[in-house]
Each structure stands twice: as C-alpha cells, then as structure tokens.
Write a structure and sequence with these properties.
Largest sheet of chain A: 8 strands, mixed
Shape of chain A: elongated
Number of helices of chain A: 12
Distance between the termini of chain A: 80 Å
Strand order of the largest sheet of chain A: 5-12-11-10-9-6-7-8
Structural class of chain A: alpha/beta
Largest interface: A-B, 128 and 130 residues
Number of domains of chain A: 3
Number of strands of chain A: 17
CATH class of the largest domain in chain A: Alpha Beta
CATH superfamily of the largest domain in chain A: Type I PLP-dependent aspartate aminotransferase-like (Major domain)
Oligomer: homodimer
CATH architecture of the largest domain in chain A: 3-Layer(aba) Sandwich
CATH topology of the largest domain in chain A: Aspartate Aminotransferase, domain 2
C-alpha cells in the first residue's frame, strides 16, 4: 500500500501507526469506498511486520467502521465516509491565559509587597511530615479506599474532626453529622443547593467575602445585607426573620472587620432561627487562630439543631489540601447526602486518611500552636509599624484573631483608589471591595500578614504611608 | 468562685476550662447580670494558677460579651444574656446512616458475588509506587503549591496529559485547553453550567449512565433520548440538531451496550454540531482499555473546535484519586475558567503533581498494559463461563473494550426482576436500569469484571444460571 511509513523507533505501536495512516488515507479521500485492501498476509510481507499486527489493525478499523470485512473476498473501504480537508487536523495553538494565573502569591511580582488576606504561611507548612503521612496512608490503605468513597467523606477523618471539635471548641457532634467537602466554597454551595427548596433569601454580613455572595446569588437567593459594628452583625435590629430567610455569620472573627459577635447577639440570632424554623450558617474560617486566649465556642454550641457549622483546613494547614467540612443538624444529614450524591462530587480518599492520622497524632495542634506564635509576632511587628508611620491617624481593629487586621483612617483619606498603591510597591485590599452596599468603607483597609515575610512588613508599611501622604497632597 | 473544677491532666488548657465553666454558669443563670467577679489576683490564688491565666480568661469572656470590665471597679457579668435550659447542651446522638454506605464494594456482603461495572481492579492499584510519588511531590513542592491553585489545575499535570493524549490517541491539544476536574461528574456539571446560557437541551444515548441524566436535569436541560444499536447512537436518524441542543456520546465504548460508534456516524455527528453551532461532549470513560487493538481516535480529532473531550483516571488508576479532565475547544477556555472560578471548586495540588510525574515516568502506560492483560484474562474466563452455562441462549456484546460485557437473552426470560438474584448470592445490573425509555431492555444484563476476583467468576455465573432457570420455571 502506497505512502505508509512505519517508524519502529516511535513510542507509538506499529498497529496504531498502521491504523492511523489507513484512517487518514480514507478520511482524506485517498482511499475511496469499495477499495479492496491488500490481504493481511501481503501487508505483513510488504512492511516486514507480523501477520497478527496486520490482522489487529484491520479488525480495529472494521470495528470503527472504516473498513468492511467480507468473508472469503477480502477487506474493503466502507461507504459513507466523507473526505475531509486535511487542515482539519491542524495543530492546536496553545490557548494560554497569561495573566489569568490564580495563585495568590506569584513567585515574583517585581518586588511588590502584598498584604494578602486569607492565605496562611505556606512556607511554614510541615511538608516533610505531611509527605510521610501521605505516603503511609497510600501504602497502608486497603483497596476499598481507592474506590469511590462514602459521599460524606472518610469515616476515619470525620471521627477525628468530631473529637477535635469537642476538644478545641466544646462542640458535641457525631462523625455521622460531619460531611467532608473540598473547602468552604463547596460547603456553602452545597448548603445553598440543599436548602433552596425551602429558603430563597439570606441575611449576609455587610461587608462580607465576595465568594459567599456569588455562591448564593448563583443558586438564586436574594441577599439581605445587615451592617456590622464592633460586636459583629447588628442583630438587635432584626426583630424576626423575614419569610424564607437563612442567615450566614462569621461569629468568631468577622471577615473583614475582625469583630467578634457578642454573646447577646449570638443568643438573639439562634432565637430568631428557632422561631422562624430556619438555620444559621456559621462560617468559622479562622477560628483556630484566636491570638489572645482560646477559641471562642461556636454558635453551634448554643443550638446544634439550628446551626450549620462550616470548617476548613485551608487556614490552619494549607488551601492546596482542599479539605473542609460541614457539621450538620441531624435532621439535615440525609438531605445533604442525597444532594451531594446527585452531584457526585467527592474528595480524594488518601489525603483524608493522612489528615485523620495527622490530627490523631496531635500534629495539627502542634502546627496551630507554632503558627500562633509566628502570627502573633508578625502581627506585633505590623501593628508597631502602622503606629510608627501613621500615629493617631490610623485605628487598628480586629487584631484578636486570624491573620489580618483592619486599619481605619477616621479623618481620611476618603475615596482612595487603593489599587494605585501598587505604583509604590505595595498591594493592599480595601474593605470597600467586600461591601454589599458601596460607599462607606473606602477609608478602611485590610492588612493580611498570613503569608508575608516579617522582614517585608516595615518596608511595606513605609511604602503605604508614602502612598497615603502623596494621595492627600494631590487630592 | 463556687463550683469550678480545673482538671490539670486534661488536654484542654486551664484557660479554656475556666472560660467554659464561667460561660456555662452565666448561660445557666447561676451568675446573673451585674454580678461582680473575683479579681484576677484572687482567682489565681484560689485555683493555684498563674495570674496571667486568669487575666486571659477574663479578657476572652469580655471579648465574647459575657463579662464587662469597668476600669478601677472590677469585672461584672454583662447584661442581656438569656439563661438557657441546661439540656440545650445535650449530647448529640450519632446520626448514623447504616446501609447508606456508598462504597461499591463493601468488605463483606455475606459472600455475594457482585458483577459491578465501572470500578477497576482496586487490588491491583500500584499502592507502593503511588505512595512514593505522593511523598516526593509533597516534599519537593514549593510553598506556592500549597496555596489555592490555578483554577484549571496544575500546569505540570495538564502538560503531561496533553502529551499522553497525543501519544495514545493522536489528539492535538495544548495544556491551556485542559482543565483538571475531580472526575467526570464535576466535568459534566461544569459543561452543563457553562453552556446553559446558550443551550437548553441535550441528546443522550439511550440507555445511558444515570449520573449523566441527573447532572443535565439538575441544570434544567431537557433530555432527548436517541436509541443505540451495535454501531452506537442512531445518528443517521437525526437530520439536524433541534434548537439549543448539545449532544453527549461515549464513542469508544458505549455505556452500557459496549457499541463502538462507527466512523460514518462520528463524521455525521461532528457535521451536525458544526451546522448547528453546537458542541458534542465526548465521554471517553474507558477508552484506554480497548482489549483488542489500540485505542480508537476520539471524536475530538475530527474537529477540536466542536468536541469537548471528557477524560478520567478513575478507570485507568482508581476512582479514589478523584482526578479527571476536560479538553476544551479553545474558544471555550476562558468561559469555563470563569464558571469554575465562580464556583471556586479546585482539586488538591499535590496528587496532581504526583500524577504528572507518574505519567511522565511511563508508570501509567505500564499500569494500563498490566491491567489490559488482567482484564483480558478475566474477560475470557467470564465469556467461557457464560457460554458453558447458557450456551446459545445468551449473546455476548461489547466485549472489545472496557471492563464489562453485555449479555442478552434473545428468547428471554423477559421482565425479570434481576435484583432477586441476590437471593442466589449473585448481584448483577440490568440494562433497563440505565434506560431513559423504560420497557425494552429487561432481557439484557451487564457483567462487570473490573474489580471481581477471577476465582469468583465461575461460581457467580453458575449462581446466575440457577437464578435464570428458576425464574423461568416460576414465571
């Protein structure tokens, strides 16, 4: 057969090469319908290949419909195949999305110091220890662990989380109430979806993290913003839940203001949910990093039947692990399991087993303990730098927990385009970015110190103060 | 202070114990509003603790709103806290979902032999090798890999997949067109969501896998079933796409019938999509396991601008890894990235890096090669057993690829309740389960051999033949 070239040094098998070249000839119209192909014996001779290889190739092409085998009379090109222009096989050019990288900390952003919030110290992640836990989990696990897992996540991890929550937060819940998710986002999306048949609106703290709004808007919830002051959401202004409302709170450390929801408002929130036969979603995104004292008991402890607790290991360990969890009121467990089952979204099992053992061995506690010291020092350096450069003009809030503080400039500058500070070599986020009702937070900024280097802090704040100074002069 | 007991041997810190017990006293109404608490000095003396511990506890309770500190006059119980019945802190009973385990192969189902489809041989998963790759990836990776990753998945893995697809399937695509997902389900859900603004219906093969229907129904697509014969979906019966239709195909190995879509129908499908300015979703769930010959070139190669290719490592490696991917037409890449970004669903990074290296080192090819031999032998044993027990009464279809065959009983029995075979110690699935239009597939069953033990096959088929025999007698 003309124009067929077999490359024996290629990684591609001879059968595959033969198939592919005959296919192309048919598709290009070089071999037309009804054409009789050489016998397998002849083909084998011609190319010096085993006859079985030729038989395999023909059988494959018959199965695919390119060829037809007629017993006793040979192999023919099938009918009904349209010859295609050869450029249809053209090389696909890389569709690169330069500038659309989604890493929050690109290796070299030309020396810009980024006071990023929400990302923990990635350099301090206990890589070697984690590597060992992963290896052991992968080696030890029975075959069944490599199967599609329990839709709620691995029992072993759910048990450890329930013990951990009891020990560190006084929460009483069974492993059966816990559902592993790939992070808070999947958790919130699952809540939004599972409760949508009964609820259509949600009270959100204003300001709040963007992703929360997206998730609930996508599932077609109406959003009712409620302002936040230094004691958290202004819950006393709500006499009763409006029809079909859920409520989402970050009681331990409001994002972004850093407020802690007071016990009076906590109790009020739970009472409201009880009366309205509704639920409160408690997003405890950085509750482990209370830097003064110990973690505050979650809202969940006030009424485990009315609170859906959302936890994550993205802040305590690393976002790249993609492990978070929900603690569900018992009556919601099967509803949530069915919704998750329908979506068929599961998390990989081996990292779950590794994490379960990591927690059981006290490694998580040790890591959190270590990180608290690191964050505490870093926060002190940050606060001192802010005081030194801004003095009375800056008020620091929300410095009791987490990995960021809020800095407010009561006498302005107002209406600042904070993005422009990049020209000064420093990147910060403004509370306004997180505001559901725009216009009143432009004099408040966030300084995240989770993944910043201590030695960058002083320079970063100095740059910030030059930016603020120049902005005032010009405006 | 009365009734406080500190347990120094507890894992819970003394500060936390102190906070928790004072909180409870306030919540139970034992300490009422305005009550003056002992000074920190006194408290420290009374319990033999450091004064700092007492200060920490009070500060924490002040932050939480339980206490109020009045400079110069002491610490008092705050107002507005409602005393709660103590049983609100009651122990949550385990909400276990016995019988709702979702493992497809529970360790001991009382000796029932399950010819499960869709699950590969989990005992053959190269655990030790995988463990090593995971460990190395976790150890070597720079901190940035522990951050929130690129929404499209790790570049390293996407590159390796693009090379792999070219080598094994002749597909030409760049890493930029590939998007890592947690499995076909997330992939299909993402497609459904991203294309919903422009499309509202979808042609599905009938019968088809259940999860596919669920996913598209959930995203409010109307479903147009199209029958399948021995050459795949009856595409020649479609003259043009109806308005707003997409199409989903399993061209390499239709599930469940095992048909291979002929080249004539492949070309027709692509032409239809081109004319209608629509897309074909190609689900290549087990394309690597073509047991005769080599993998068939995907539909994607006919027109990379019109086909969305869905791939998974659930069958070639293990479902528990939760790694699959999409290959997207270039013009769809940014749309899909934004939808995924909004959902904020990402896969863990370390297993992606491990898999990239596993592929690069030729480990995936080696594993597939090994598994093909295992599956081929197992399939031969299965087919022989079926022939021995059923003779001419059974026709075997779709035995050229994958990890299951279809067995048809042309002369019946019909209307069999195949679930009852469990009483005979054998569990099988009927094609009827996967049928969008019920009533014509009850005489066709699926025998999966992916995760069954070779020595179970003979016994399993023998039990099945007894069941069929008895069913005929009784009906």
């Amino acid at each position: 057969m003309f124009g067929i070239y077999l490359d024996r040094s290629s990684e591609i098998s001879v059968t595959a090469q033969l198939c592919s070249q005959i296919r192309q000839k048919i598709e290009k119209g070089e071999l037309v319908k009804g054409t009789r192909l050489p016998s397998t014996r002849k083909l084998a001779q011609e190319f010096g290949i085993a006859r079985n290889v030729a038989i395999d190739a023909y059988e494959q092409l018959i199965a695919e419909g390119y060829l037809i085998g007629r017993t006793g009379s040979g192999t023919f090109v099938a009918e009904g195949i349209i010859a295609m222009a050869s450029d249809m096989h053209g090389e696909a050019e890389p569709a690169d999305m330069a500038g659309q990288q989604h890493r929050s900390d690109p290796p070299d952003q030309e020396g810009i110091i980024h006071f990023l919030t929400g990302t923990p110290d990635l350099r301090s992640f206990p890589r070697k220890v984690w590597a060992k836990y992963l290896k052991n989990a992968a080696e030890d696990s029975p075959g069944v662990l490599y199967d599609y897992g329990d839709i709620r996540g691995e029992e072993e991890l759910r048990s450890e989380i329930s013990v951990y929550l009891h020990r560190t937060r006084g929460m009483r819940c069974s492993a059966g109430q816990i559902m592993i998710v790939s992070g808070s986002s999947e958790g919130l999306a699952l809540i939004a979806k599972a409760l949508r048949p009964d609820y259509s609106s949600i009270y959100l703290e204003n300001p709040t993290i963007e992703i929360t709004q997206h998730i609930f808007r996508q599932t077609e919830y109406r959003i009712t913003p409620v302002e936040v002051d230094e004691s958290g959401m202004k819950l006393h202004e709500i006499a009763h839940f409006q029809d079909g409302h859920l409520m989402l709170l970050t009681p331990s450390h409001h994002f972004p203001s850093g407020s802690i929801l007071s016990i009076q408002r906590r109790q009020h929130a739970v009472r409201l949910a009880e009366k309205a036969d509704s639920y409160i979603i408690e997003d405890d995104y950085d509750g482990d990093f209370r830097l003064k004292g110990v973690p505050i008991p979650p809202l969940y402890t006030l009424n485990p039947d009315r609170v859906i607790y959302v936890g994550t290991f993205s802040k305590t360990l690393a976002p790249g692990l993609r492990i978070g969890f929900l603690v569900l009121p018992r009556r919601l467990v099967s509803r949530f399991a069915s919704v998750k089952e329908e979506l068929n979204i599961r998390s990989p099992s081996i990292p779950q087993i590794a994490l379960a053992r990591f927690i059981r061995d006290g490694r998580l506690d040790r890591h959190i303990h270590k990180m608290k010291t690191i964050y505490r020092n870093r926060r002190n350096v940050l606060i001192e730098a802010v005081k030194r450069h801004f003095g009375d003009r800056a008020v620091i809030r929300g410095d009791e927990a987490g990995m960021h503080v809020l800095v407010e400039f009561p006498q302005g500058p107002f209406d600042v385009d904070w993005q422009r500070s990049i020209a000064y070599g420093v990147k910060i986020h403004c509370v306004e970015e997180y505001s559901l009702v725009k216009g009143s937070h432009s004099h408040q900024i966030l300084l995240g110190y989770g993944n910043i280097r201590e030695e960058e802090i002083e320079t970063g704040i100095e740059r910030l103060s030059r930016f603020v100074h120049d902005w005032k002069l010009r405006n």
